[in-house]
């Protein structure tokens, strides 16, 4: 990859991003950088208080963004998971693992944070992938 590789902004029409100044993902060369993704559905609704629903929706959102960028979960090389409640760690791992059925997982960092941008966000996930 050269430094002059063009940037491609990935904005799936069926994914909600809210009114914030960011791209859902950016591709440069063979690299895809997916922004932090909460559990919003396509209509901008969040399953308030339901960690499993938010986690599943966040992973579905990431899958859609990756597909739009020409990749899939099998091409993810790194993730960062931000959780607001340590008690959700085991549920997060179960749901997360189900998106990598081969058992080949990307490198990952899991962080506990005091808060995320919206008070009802229980998690946010970002990732990098290679096409």
Key attributes of the depicted protein:
single chain, 131 residues, 28% strand, alpha+beta, six-stranded mixed beta sheet
What does this structure look like?
This protein has a single domain (7-130), classed as 60s Ribosomal Protein L30, Chain: A, CATH 3.30.1330. The longest helix has 18 residues, at 51-68. The protein has two helices and six strands; from the N terminus they run βββαβαββ. α1 (51-68) runs parallel beside α2. A hairpin with a 2-residue loop joins β2 and β3. The chain has a six-stranded mixed β-sheet, with helices on one face. The protein is an alpha+beta fold. The chain is 21% helix and 28% strand.
Compose a concise summary of this entry.
With 131 residues, the chain is of the alpha+beta class.
Strand and helix layout:
Blueprint: E1 7-10, E2 25-28, E3 31-37, H1 51-68, E4 76-83, H2 89-98, E5 107-112, E6 123-130
Parallel strand pairs: 4-5
Antiparallel strand pairs: 1-2, 2-3, 3-6, 4-6
- The CATH topology turns out to be 60s Ribosomal Protein L30, Chain: A
The quaternary organization reads as single chain
What's the order of the H and E elements? EEEHEHEE
Q: What's the domain count? A: 1
CATH superfamily: RutC-like
Could you give the count of β-strands? 6
CATH class categorisation: Alpha Beta
Structural class: alpha+beta
CATH-scheme architecture: 2-Layer Sandwich
